[in-house]
């Protein structure tokens, strides 16, 4: 009986995660820069998550947070920039070389 109860608790937890769309546990996330866009341009992560941007274009790009919450160097092809988001909030950023390139990282507790 107790085995059955354990399994159903696990199943409920899994369903809750699937249907509530809870953010992933703190860990790592990768955002690729492709064809003058951040992919994905909008993500939701848990506090403590390290986000890494990787430039897959032949053109240099940057990653500059609003109010300079984080700022990369110029990223050449294959270069990476990582930032760890400790606090909840909505972090908007742009490429300073191509201001039409925008993205947002939402930081939320799971
Ligand atoms: Cu750019």
Provide structural commentary.
With 110 residues, the chain is α/β, with parallel strands linked by helices. The protein has a single domain, classed as Immunoglobulin-like. The chain has one helix and eight strands. The strands form two sheets. It has a four-stranded mixed beta sheet with strand order 2-1-4-6, with no helix packed on it. Strand 1 and strand 2 form a beta hairpin. The longest helix is centred in the N-terminal third of the chain and has 19 residues. The chain is globular. The two termini are 30 Å apart. Bound molecules: copper (II) ion. The site of copper (II) ion has 5 residues, from strand 8.
Short description:
This protein has one helix and eight strands. By secondary structure, it is an alpha/beta fold.
Beta percentage is: 35-45%
Helical residue percent? 10-25%
In total, the number of domains comes to 1
Along the chain, the helix and strand elements come as HEEEEEEEE
- CATH class descriptor name: Mainly Beta
* CATH architecture level-2 label: Sandwich
Please, what is the average pLDDT? Answer: 87
**How many individual helices?**
1
- The multimeric state of the shown protein is single chain
Structural class: alpha/beta
Over all CA atoms, what is the radius of gyration?
Answer: 17 Å
Gap between N and C termini: 30 Å
What fold name goes in the CATH topology slot? Answer: Immunoglobulin-like
What can be said about the biggest beta sheet?
A: 4 strands, mixed
Low-confidence stretches: 12-20
Strand order across the biggest sheet? 2-1-4-6
